[in-house]
Amino acid sequence: MGMNVGSDSGGDDEVVSTINTTPLVDVMLVLLIIFLITIPVATHTVPVKLPSETIKANKTKPENINIAVDKDGDVYWNESRVPDNNALVAKLKEVSVKDPQPEVQIRGDQKARYEFIGRVIVACQRAGIVKVGFITEPPHG
């Protein structure tokens, strides 16, 4: 590394025609270090097989129980309104002893609060229902 401090003759009219590459080398080394650090992070992930989406029509069996929850939190058992949560648990206990046990299919209104759906799930759990499903509409488009 050299530095030009002037000529021996005392004249400063000489033009320096060399390019100073020190800042270029500094920038290139910083970029090299950044790439060496980030490439292993981007390529090392846990290899997992993700499930693929399948859309199939749900076949509602006559023995399945359809429970609908509207946006106000009212619960309907196969289109008849259930007065309260205790009545729902009692009805679910009656059907939970059947062999094979029927599936409970919950149809929740899009604007219903999660709390209302959660109460139905807890009622199914208290009654001993093993299989609970959620019915949704297929995506449009």
Automatic annotation (TrEMBL):
Q: What is its main location?
A: membrane
Q: For this UniProt entry, which residues form the secretion signal? A: none
Q: Kindly list the places in or outside the cell where this protein is found, as annotated in its UniProt entry.
A: Cell membrane
GO BP: any one term: protein transport
Q: Does the keyword Amino-acid biosynthesis apply?
A: no
- State any single GO MF term: transmembrane transporter activity
User: What is the membrane topology listed in the Swiss-Prot or TrEMBL record?
Assistant: Single-pass membrane protein; Single-pass type II membrane protein
Q: Which domain of life is it from?
A: Bacteria
Which cellular component appears as one GO term in the record? plasma membrane
Q: Which Gene3D superfamilies match?
A: 3.30.420.270
Keywords, sorted A to Z:
Cell membrane, Membrane, Protein transport, Transmembrane, Transmembrane helix, Transport
Query: What protein family is recorded?
Result: Belongs to the ExbD/TolR family.
Protein name as catalogued: Biopolymer transporter ExbD
State the species of origin: Chitinimonas arctica
